[in-house]
Amino acid sequence: MQEFGEDTHRNSSATHDIANSKTGDNRISQPRQSQHRNDDNNQSSATATVASRRRRKKKYAVSTRWEREVAENGPINDFHRYWCCCARRLGNMFVLCERTDGSPIVVAGPCWPFCVFVTLPLILAVSAAVAYFVIINNDSPLPIWVAYIYVPVLGVVLASLFCVSCQDPGLMERVTDEEAGNGGWFWNEQVGSFRPPGALYCRECGVLIQDYDHLCPWTGTGIGRRNMMAFKLFVVGVNVLCYFSIILLYDDMKARLGKQQVYAN
C-alpha cells in the first residue's frame, strides 16, 4: 500500500509538471502572437498610407481667377475645348497624359495651335523642299552622303521640338503652409500660393512655373526648369538646320550656274 501511494504521488506530480509546462508555453506563445498581430497591423497601415498617397492627386498652383470662373460658370467653352476635349485643363495648360498622382507626362501649352499649324509645317516644308530639289535630285551635284547628315539634323530638331512643347515646363504645386514663407518663399496672389525664388506666374499659361524664363509661341508653351535643356537643343538644332539648308542651296545654285556657263561657251 505504501508503494502504491508513492506511485500515485509520483504520477500526480508528473501530471502537475506537464500542466505547468503547457501553461508556460501558452504564456510564451501569447506575446509572440500579439507581436505578429502588431506587425501585421503596422504593415497594413503602412500599405494603406502608401495607397492613399498614390491616390492623392497633386494640386497645382493655378490661377485663382480661372478656378473661380470654372466654379461659377463650369468648363470654359473656347477654341481649345473642341480640340483638347479629352485633356485635363490646368489654367491654359492641357494635360494629355498623366501619372496616377496627377503629374503630367504629356502637356500642351496655350500657344499649341501656332506650334502645330505654323512651326511644324514650316520646318517640314522647307526641309522637304531642300531634300527633294537639292539633295536627292538626280541633277544635283551634291554627293549622296549629304543626306546622311541632313536627315539626322532634321530628326534632332523635330525630337527637341516635341520635348519642349509636350513636356512639363515645371508646374509647381500649391503651397499654403506659412512655414514656407518663413523659409524664404514669397506669396503669389495670382495663384494663392507661396513660391520659391525664381518661380514666376505665367499669365498666358495661367500657372506657376519653376525657374520660369519666357513664353515661346514657336514651341507653344512656357519655358521653365524642366524643358529648358530641350529648348536650348531646339534653338541650336533649328539654327544648324537653317544654315545648313542655306549652304546647300547656295552650292547647288553655284554648281548649276557653272554648268550653264560651260554649256554657253
Automatic annotation (TrEMBL):
Highest taxon listed in the record's lineage: Eukaryota
Record GO biological process: protein targeting to membrane
Major localization listed first in the record, in broad terms: membrane
Localization annotation: Membrane
Enzyme Commission designation: 2.3.1.225
Record-annotated membrane-spanning stretches: 114-136, 142-164, 230-250
Residue ranges, compositional bias (Polar residues): 11-33, 41-50
Top-tier EC class: transferase
Compositionally biased region (Basic and acidic residues): 1-10
Region listing for Disordered, in residue ranges: 1-56
A Gene Ontology term for the protein's cellular component: Golgi apparatus
PROSITE patterns on file: DHHC
Record PANTHER family: PALMITOYLTRANSFERASE (PTHR22883:SF203), ZINC FINGER DHHC DOMAIN CONTAINING PROTEIN (PTHR22883)
Record remark: domains: The DHHC domain is required for palmitoyltransferase activity.
Name of protein: Palmitoyltransferase
Originating organism: Fragilariopsis cylindrus CCMP1102
